[in-house]
Amino acid sequence: MGSQMSKSYSLYYSKYCFFCQKVLMNLHGRDDLNIELRSTSDRQHAADLMKGGGKTQVPCLRVDDGSGNVQWMYESDDIIQYFAKH
Ligand SMILES: N[C@@H](CCC(=O)N[C@@H](CS)C(=O)NCC(=O)O)C(=O)O
Question: Is the model's pTM score more than 0.85?
Fold first, then answer.
């Protein structure tokens, strides 16, 4: 098994955000990916995003590689490109 197996993903999004919709549409059908969707209308999620990523901008993908490394990826195009490769 590759390290890929232990990765976990969370997508911080807002339902009013076009860039988030673009990412969500792009992920449609990718049932191979296990992505937890975290709406920033939930104040706890918004606070976690600010604390972890450094800004409240959405969309933001949190990638946890399962060994203590967490990456926060902003920019819808970067997120889409990331999933095209993973
Ligand atoms: N270039 C960014 C734009 C993202 C963006 O503008 N997000 C807006 C919502 S549509 C946002 O989060 N604004 C609030 C903030 O930056 O805190 C992308 O493509 O992801």
Answer: yes
Q: With 80 as the cut, is the pLDDT of residue 1 above it?
A: no
Closest atom of ligand 1 to 79 CA is 20
59 falls within a domain: yes
CB 51 within 8 Å of CB 45: no
In a domain, 20, yes or no: yes
* Ligand 1 cavity residues, CB under 6 Å: 17-19, 55-59, 75-77
CATH number of 81's domain: 3.40.30.10
Ligand 1 atom, smallest distance to 23 CA: 20
Does residue 2 lie in a domain region?
A: no
Q: What percent of the chain has pLDDT over 90?
A: 87
